[in-house]
Specification:
The chain is globular, with a radius of gyration of 18 Å. A 6-stranded mixed β-barrel has the order 1-5-2-4-3-6. The protein is built from 3 helices and 6 strands, in the order H-H-E-E-E-E-E-H-E. The N terminus is likely disordered. The chain has a single domain, classed as Barwin-like endoglucanases (Beta Barrel). By secondary structure, the protein is an alpha/beta fold.
């Protein structure tokens, strides 16, 4: 394959892939996460259940599955986005109490995490 045809093939792939900068930025990230254990209604309309593996994110679609890894201990959990938040600067996720427990951050109340969309 020549250089010219390789460049043309790459250009076709880039043009065909409808990815926006915002969606790429939202698909993965690192920052601080906190947890909450309310039983009020979430922004998606369902009741918050602290025993389920769920989380709040500012803009990911409801139902999105996200793998969250605690940077301090390497523990991970997969959560489903069902709420909006957190609304504290520097925080990227609010986890349910069950999810926070899975990655060992209950005692501290917050932790540095990295997350990525799965499935």
């Amino acid at each position: 394959m020549s250089f010219k045809s390789s460049v043309a093939a790459l250009a076709a792939i880039v043009i065909a892939a409808p990815v926006t900068f915002a969606s790429v930025a939202e698909a993965a990230g690192c920052g601080r996460a906190s947890w909450y254990a309310l039983t009020s209604r979430t922004a998606s309309g369902e009741r918050m259940n602290p025993a389920k593996l769920t989380a709040a994110h500012k803009s990911l679609r409801f139902g999105t599955k996200v793998k969250v890894t605690n940077s301090n201990n390497g523990k991970s959990v997969v959560v489903r986005i069902n709420d909006r938040g957190p609304f504290i600067r520097g925080r990227v996720l609010d986890l349910s109490k069950a999810a926070a427990s899975e990655i060992g951050m209950i005692g501290a109340g917050h932790a540095k995490v990295c997350y990525q969309i799965v499935g």
